[in-house]
């Protein structure tokens, strides 16, 4: 059997849910032809089904090494990085790869069908990135406020540098300030305007229709494919070429997620 035959065998095993068997077939195909990107991406997918993220990451990295503009290679690499995001840098890299995969997928007719999948993975990665940043911010602010209270308490109360009435007044002010700051440091909610009207997820590639309504591009393309060419809310006729990127909203969302 040649490399391609082993790949076909691997595909059959994958379809049957025999992911370990598929990995074996793809591995044999790679041994016979170590330069075929498809063999690496197929094996990466099988590794992902078994949650073997490290192996999936290695295969996806190899695929992108052979072809830096390979849509599926960048997509799988981004997914593998997102599945084990032990550092913020790793999440940053995942978003970078998924961004590239999305741009490549949406740019070619033959890969446009993948754009919805890539877009969903990108939204998950960006939401995870934002939530981690929010958690770190809240922890830092809370620790700072606790330390401020401790310092003021020690300086003003223990050292008795102020009278009792002044101490009480200052203490009430500190408590009020602390309370307001705690309220401000609560986890921020994502503004409704940043959410797609179809998926209710934060948008990555917002497009505005002639009706003035903004949606996630891939959500609209999926709507066109399954339900027809019309605006989901206004019901007005709508075609792909009428969609315009909502640059102002896109920049606002990116700014929100970066803070």
Task: Give a description of the structure.
It is a single chain. It contains ten helices and three strands; from the N terminus they run ααααααααββαβα. It is mainly α. The chain has three domains: 121 residues, Tetratricopeptide repeat domain (Serine Threonine Protein Phosphatase 5, Tetratricopeptide repeat, Alpha Horseshoe); 50 residues; 67 residues, Herpes Virus-1. The model has no long low-confidence stretch (mean pLDDT 85). This is E3 ubiquitin-protein ligase CHIP. It catalyses: S-ubiquitinyl-[E2 ubiquitin-conjugating enzyme]-L-cysteine + [acceptor protein]-L-lysine = [E2 ubiquitin-conjugating enzyme]-L-cysteine + N(6)-ubiquitinyl-[acceptor protein]-L-lysine. Its EC number is 2.3.2.27. One of its GO terms (cellular component) is cytoplasm.
Keywords, separated by commas or semicolons:
259 residues, mainly alpha, Serine Threonine Protein Phosphatase 5, Tetratricopeptide repeat, Herpes Virus-1, 3 domains, three-stranded antiparallel β-sheet, 10 helices, TPR-like_helical_dom_sf, protein-folding chaperone binding, TPR_rpt, repeat, E3 ubiquitin-protein ligase CHIP
């Amino acid at each position: 059997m040649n490399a391609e035959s082993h790949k076909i065998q691997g595909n059959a095993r994958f379809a049957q849910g025999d992911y370990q068997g598929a990995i074996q077939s793809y591995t044999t195909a790679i041994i016979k032809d170590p330069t075929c990107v498809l063999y690496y991406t197929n094996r990466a997918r099988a590794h992902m089904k078994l949650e073997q993220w490290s192996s999936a990451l290695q295969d996806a990295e190899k695929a992108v090494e052979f072809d830096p503009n390979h849509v599926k290679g960048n997509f799988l690499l981004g997914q593998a990085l997102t599945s084990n995001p032990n550092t913020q840098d790793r999440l940053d890299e995942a978003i970078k790869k998924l961004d590239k995969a999305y741009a490549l997928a949406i740019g070619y007719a033959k890969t446009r069908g993948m754009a919805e999948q890539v877009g969903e993975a990108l939204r998950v990665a960006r939401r995870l990135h934002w939530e981690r940043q929010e958690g770190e911010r809240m922890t830092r602010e809370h620790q700072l406020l606790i330390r401020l209270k401790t310092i003021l308490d020690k300086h003003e109360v223990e050292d008795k540098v102020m009278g009792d009435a002044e101490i009480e007044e200052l203490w009430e002010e500190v408590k009020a300030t602390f309370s307001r700051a705690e309220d401000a440091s609560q986890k921020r909610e994502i503004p409704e305007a940043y959410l797609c009207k179809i998926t209710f997820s934060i948008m990555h590639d917002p497009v505005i229709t002639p009706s003035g309504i903004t949606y996630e591009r891939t959500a609209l393309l999926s709507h066109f494919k399954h339900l027809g060419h019309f605006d989901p809310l206004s019901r007005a006729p709508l075609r792909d070429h009428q969609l315009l990127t909502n640059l102002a909203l896109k920049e606002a969302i990116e700014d929100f997620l970066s803070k």
